[in-house]
Structures are given as C-alpha cells and as structure tokens.
Amino acid sequence: DRTNYTLLITEMKPVLAQEELSLSVAVFAQGREFLSSAISSIDWIGIMAYDLGFPHSSFDDALAALEHWEAFGFERSRMVLGIPFYGRNEGSGYYSYRYIVEEYLPDPSSDLTAGISYNGITTVEKKTTHVLSNGYGGLMFWEITQDTSDASSLLSTVAKTVHVKSPPDLDGSDLIDLADLLHFAAEWLRNDCSEQNTWCNRADLDASGDVSVSDVAVLASFWASE
Hints:
The protein is α/β, with parallel strands linked by helices. It has helices at residues 2-18, 59-72, 97-104, 121-133, 154-165, 178-190, 213-224, and strands spanning 24-28, 44-48, 79-84, 86-88, 94-96, 112-113, 116-117, 138-142.
C-alpha cells in the first residue's frame, strides 16, 4: 500500500501542476503512509494530531506529531497542524465541541469535562502560537460545523491569535515603519469597530474589540524588533 500510494502521489503531481493545482495529503500524527520519495511531490501535509488515545489531542501530542513529520523530511513551511473541534471519552465516544460547550459550560482553560477530552480555548491558543512562532505552514480543523458561533468559538480563537501574533505590516511593504504608523493613525481616527467588522479595521492590533493606546504599544514592539 505504501508503495502504491507513493506512485499515486508522484504520478498525480505533474498532472495537477499542469492545471496549476496543488497536492496536499492528510496524514496521521505518527504515520508513515508513503515512502520518502513522495515528499517532493507534496505541497503540504495536514497532520491529523487527534484520536490519539486519552486525552486524544494534547499539546504534547501536537509537538510530537510535528517533530515526527519534520524528521521524516518535510520542511516546517509545508506542515499544517490539525486541531480537533470535537472531543472523545475513554470509551471512544464522539462529542462535538458545540455539544460540550452547550451541555457543560466548561472553563476556557480546561481540556477535560464530564470525562470528555477535547481542546479548549487555552490549548487552541497555545497550539496556534506554537505554529506561528516556529515557522509551520498553518492550521487545519476537523471540522468546522462542530464549532460554536459565540465567544467560545475555537475558529475565532485561532483568528484572534493569528491577528495578535502577526506583524502589523499595515501597508504590505514587508517592513514595520513610519508608513504603518500613519496607516494606523488613520484607522484609529476612523475607529469604526463593530460586530460586523470583528477585525476592527486592522488597527485593533491586540484584538481587544477597540482601537486604543494598547494597540500603539503592539505596533511599537514590532517596530522595535525590526
């Protein structure tokens, strides 16, 4: 199977490339589904770092999965970490994150409630920060319809974490400089944050829901590190 899967990947890649399409592969956390000769044909892998016993998707599990696939031969930029939007108990029962929140109202820092292992807000923030800080390709989720749509949303947690951790290159110049400060000032004066505009016109650098002096501090810290 591994040999044939490798052939499938390597033969599909040039055909997809002709259509300007990429090729991605979902892989198990500690898997080895294909031979290393297929690596050059894969644009990115989605690492399914969940369903790994009990607890089924810890932060340490995520680290181990990323280390495993890097050791196998993938650059970090081609590795996408999978985060579960569901939980499991020791009997392999399956519960959506939405159900867990609605039924048990867990603490955001918790990953275990009523015998169900899942990823809470704090762990999702931690995984997102690790991916951003260490040059990995990004995050994926299984799966989006199991998330909530309020303040407990894991997708919103990822978005806010990405927003706060990303350099505020507001003019797209690849530098943090005076032009970004001027852009920030203009956005601050507009200050049209609303529920419909959850990114607060890009000037809400700390994702607080308001544009204030604390956002100036965020911009200054990134500028000073340039």
